[in-house]
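Weekly modeling sync, notes
Attendees: AB, CL, MP (scribe)

Item 1: holo prediction request
CL wants a bound-state model with coenzyme A before deciding which constructs to order. AB pointed out that an apo prediction alone won't tell us much about the pocket. Agreed to run with the ligand included and paste results into these notes for async review.

Input as submitted:
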Amino acid sequence: MKIRTEVELDRNAIYALNRAAFESDAEADLVEALRLQADPHISLVAEEAGEIIGHIMFSPATLSSDSEIPVIGLGPMAVLPGRQHQGIGSALVQAGLEACKKLGYQAVFVLGHPQYYPRFGFVLASRYDISSVYDVPDEVFMAFELVPGALVGKAGEMHYHPAFEGL
Ligand SMILES: CC(C)(COP(=O)(O)OP(=O)(O)OC[C@H]1O[C@@H](n2cnc3c(N)ncnc32)[C@H](O)[C@@H]1OP(=O)(O)O)[C@@H](O)C(=O)NCCC(=O)NCCS
């Protein structure tokens, strides 16, 4: 399996993969919107034998407490049903976090499965008194400091890229 940045030829496969994993068009459409609207964005695929079996996307986000701090949102991410629980998602998250760090982002946020993301070092965003604008349980909104201490003193709201408003 290889993790690499998406290329134009991957787009249909990425759309189909997100649709299959989420059983909905919504996340697949969000990926398309982010690709067009979010600059920069990170879009990585897991490829095996020429097939796209996993995908992860990151897009710039903002903190209400500090409009200058570079933070980024993780999502959507998806692994092909039938290929889940084989470490593909983990490899995508790890490669993605490295890519975010290289681009100079200081922290990553995610809304997702509370049993999944802590294994990569994510903690509850509420630890920093940072909330999402979505009405979700505390434990699904998590943050990861790429620069230790980056989120200290940044209490407030985190806003995903505006493309998420269409979700
Ligand atoms: C979540 C997802 C991306 C994980 O990818 P993966 O390749 O299966 O993940 P890994 O193999 O690296 O890790 C597996 C772990 O993910 C966690 N996990 C997977 N799906 C989960 C789910 N629906 N709810 C909670 N945890 C989940 C489990 O803890 C699992 O651990 P286990 O194998 O010990 O049971 C994948 O299951 C998926 O595409 N799900 C459908 C779409 C989705 O929910 N996307 C994420 C939105 S936050």
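Recorded for review: Residues 21-22, 77-79, 84-90, 112-113, 115-116 surround coenzyme A (CB under 6 Å).
Action items: CL to compare against the apo run; MP to circulate these notes.
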